[in-house]
Amino acid sequence: MTKRRFFDYFFSLFTFHFLLFTFYLLLLTVLLYGCGYTLQSSANLPFETISVGKIDNKTSEPKLQDRLHEVLAETLSRYGFGVSSSARYKLQGEIDQFELVPTTEVNLTATQYQIVIKASFKLVDTESGTSIPLAASSPFITYFNANPTDTLEEIMTQKELAEASALANLAQTLVSLVTYNTPKNFASLLFKPDDIKNVGGLIIKLRDAKDPLSKYLRDQFSPDLQRQIDAYSEFDYTAKALKSALAGELNNIIQNRYLYDEKRFAHIMLSDATTKLIRQNEQGANRVRLNRILLEEAYPDELAKAQQVPENKKTNK
Questions:
Q1: I want to staple 49 with a disulfide (CB 3.0 to 4.6 A). Which of 64, 87, 121, 238 is the partner?
Q2: Are residues 131 and 145 in the same domain?
Q3: Percentage of residues of the chain with pLDDT beyond 90
Q4: How far apart are the C-alpha atoms of 139 and 166, rounded to whole Å?
Q5: Spatial CB neighbours of 204, under 8 Å, sequence gap ≥ 6
């Protein structure tokens, strides 16, 4: 064999094996995605470790919380998170509703059932005590079929498989929200007392409630804070003490409500960027961020803008 023929043979063999390796790599990627696995670099995660906290089961269906706890831990691991009980960030919530409803009948015998699961979850920063909602009573629905001749044991087996599918979809949604919609330091989205830069001006607007947004905010406040606002006067030298109370109540609103309503903000000229965020129907931490921006633009002289945290200073532990 000449050197030229040997080189051609070696090059052809190398090309064949390279193409074969590429084919198998593509096939493996497709299979992983098809099975629900996500190839995710830890550098792209909002933080490296997370814990799955308490899951309250408010339904009569037994052990749903245990099954969801297990599938959440598995899904987090697939996304690249380290799951540790000592992690700073904790995922916790409750299962609010479980329904098993026959949807199709043949000769008075159910042949198809619908399973509906609703849950509410939040991501908690255990160091700062702040949290953001992740899934507020989102319905997760699956179906399963049953033949008239099926035994009770066979129907229960199909029911358990359908439950597992609904719980897997719920876990996938929650982990996706944590992975893609959570800032690395979401506590920076919340108001601090010093972010209320003109407490007197804000209190007067909330007390007088001459616009729909101020009236809405005032109605959400606790009775104690409402009394303090009503008792305020421009000569009240204790107004600064209200900063903490106002910041706390505003944080409760932006974490647990969706502030935007067309009539509520009709009197406010919102920026193009904020209008774009409204159209995107933001969820989770992005909704908290949108709520904060809405308040900043509604009360520009009273509320400071949230500070942007540089990437190299964001918490990632």
A1: 87
A2: yes
A3: 48
A4: 9
A5: 232
